[in-house]
Amino acid sequence: MTRKTVRIAMNGVTGRMGHRQHLVRSILALREQGGLDLGDGTVLWPEPVLVGRREDALEALAEKYGLEHFSTDLDAVLADPSVDIYFDAQITSAREAAIRKAIAAGKHVYTEKPSATGLDGALELARLAHEKGIKHGVVQDKIFLPGLMKLKRLIDGGFFGRILSVRGEFGYWVFEGDWQEAQRPSWNYRTEDGGGIVVDMFPHWEYVLHELFGRVTSVQALTATHIPRRWDENGKPYDATADDAAYGIFELDGGTIAQINSSWAVRVNRDELVEFQVDGTEGSAVAGLRKCRVQHRSATPKPVWNPDIPATEAFRDQWQEVPDNTEFDNGFKAQWELFLRHVFADAPYHWDLLAGARGVQLAELGLKSAAEGHRIDVPEIAL
Question: How far is 93 from 366, CA to CA, in rounded Å?
């Protein structure tokens, strides 16, 4: 067995997502399992090079996890020929320029979404990467979650018949920051810093809908800034200029209609922080992050609307749990493994920068729809 060291420049690992999901639960988890076995006698050993703006924070992370390499000089890291892959989990507004540098340096690129702040920039990154001949990928973690993988199993097995509609509910209450600390960084609520729930979540909804149900062909959205005043990490008040809620209707290729509400100003009365209900002619399902429940046509009750008497049925109890039937790994780690196999074993991989550009496109058109107050077609994009 041959061990091949893969040096990965990880930019933005001092942030919540870059630290927890990508560094700890993906790259370090791969090291804990002994590396990634490619099946040809080669085991990939990921060696992270931590990159960021705050040297003290990088040094603390390196010390905590026993890592040797960190730097605040991105240009120097990208100039290092021993670095194979550049990964970006920075603030959105800083991402595009850094990825351009990585592509120019000939590094394979893996990035959080959105890949850029606008469609033109996202498409340009995809073109540059294609012309450079590098491998590239965009994080699309939701489709690797157990609940959605069970949902995909149902779709592939023909459980639903003709799929009629998808209804999604996502969100939770993000504290304003005055009397309880906010769970998300303050930049998320400032448009000028690349914040906003449409920019953050519509790229997720694009690939979830595209992968499971069909390409999005039109969007109609209404956005709101429900909480106009928040407090930052230093306890200082600021004006929230970005949307903190979005209510979207999406038409899909094939006729399915999807409705998805996204909000950081909603209190959770669901089993999970995100849930999708899928209704078809032969059956329905409700999928969350981990669980999925179904109700087949043959087991569907026959409710009758009568507001004058109490409900006689516990409707939630009439659904059946979909079994795991397999072991599910962390979704971020699973996609990292696929990307590494793509880079070093040329395994198939289609979650690339062009797929990421579709997400940016949907966010851009969603904001345009909200501003103009009408439905907008979503054209297909290509290099």
Answer: 19
